[in-house]
Amino acid sequence: PRVDVPPFPGFVGSFLRDQEGRRYVTNVGGVMSAGLNDRDTALVLNWVMSNFGQTSLPPGGFKSFDAAEVRRLRDNRPVDAVALRRQIAQRLKARGVVLPDYPWP
User: Fold this and answer.
1) Could you tell me how many helices (H) and strands (E) the chain has, helices first?
2) Is this model's pTM higher than 0.70 or not?
């Protein structure tokens, strides 16, 4: 919260319950600014989902990210990741999926 990052444990997997969620988590600021190549980004995203997704992941778990998917999602980067998150959160909320408060306006 001090650095405007919502909590991961129990929530981060929720984004994968939305059709745009994989695009969002691949293109958030912290992921984009990490300087990782597509392969390493996929590895980190898989680690985050496996370690922090817990019960928030889609039923049956999640399909692992790979370098080709990360490249495709990065090539289709949202103009405004915050706006995309709001849209995803609204759709998830309508389905009863809870996300933590988001510190960005």
Assistant:
1) 5, 0
2) yes
> 67-75 and 38-52 helices cross at what angle (nearest 10)?
100
Per-residue tokens: 67: 């370098």
**Per-residue tokens: 22:** 């994989």
Dihedral (Cα; 95, 96, 97, 103), 10-degree rounding: 110
| Contact indicator for 7, 100 with CB cutoff of 8 Å | yes
CA distance 39 to 59: 25
Digit-coded pLDDT (tens) for 9-36 = 667 889 999 999 999 999 988 888 899 9
Query: What kind and span of H or E run contains 70?
Result: helix 67-75
